[in-house]
């Protein structure tokens, strides 16, 4: 299984991308397990030795939930999260219009689908570069002897230490093949991680991961083989009848939390509606009501150029009020919450000031 490296400068012939949905959901009202990237970042340090559930620029979380920050991630790139609610509206508008001018390659004050596709590929590449840097730092942390390889036992020591276990004690137990005395949940996580470790270990398998293999372990979107493994895991978790395919009912049947009031019911209904549209319009390519592994892999693949163009068209359609198939400054400002996560007021009056 060859590791797939992200481009480190400019655009590669085959550009990075992942197809996304087009619905906007209130970031303040989410069902369980649907936290935003900002909320997830607060818990990142605690679980830094665990492969992340959330992958920037990837449409589905590792557990099969939709990535609610996807549109902002592929529009803002490494600047995602730079439009906080407490930022000055005028400053945010200027920043958004600066982005607009960068996307608008021919400077005609309109963003076409091709221009948006080009921009999205660049922003997704930025997320890939961040993932490489993050993986490199984690690799050094779990490679104490600096030999350029990480063994499963070395990783296991660091992982359990990050979960509160005494690192030296765990290392001694592993060295002497003693019982680690971990709880059932942790043991299950370790077994799943070891499966992924095997998948990331390129032939000949030796349970020693190089830096590039470790990148595939943490970020399966960087490797074709690991991407296929991730797709199989998602289908395994959602597939109720064992046919290794997904029906609409299976895709929308993830538990969404306990409905305690009408507001909760509205959130749950919106979540189901989002997943239904995602399934029917974006994942089920031949519209036969069934999603195969191949269809899900195409949908999840960040290297899919066709998906990039399709997503660009969908993003334009959200804000294209005059129906001319282009995005104009007024439209981007009016729908700023979709693109940045923040709603910028007085968009009509300020557009000429900021552009």
From TrEMBL:
Residues 91-126, 130-165, 226-261 form the EF-hand domain. Pfam families: EF-hand_7. InterPro entries: CAB45_EFh, EF-hand-dom_pair, EF_Hand_1_Ca_BS, EF_hand_dom. Keywords: Calcium, Glycoprotein, Golgi apparatus, Metal-binding, Repeat, Signal. Belongs to the CREC family. PANTHER family: 45 KDA CALCIUM-BINDING PROTEIN, RETICULOCALBIN. This is 45 kDa calcium-binding protein.
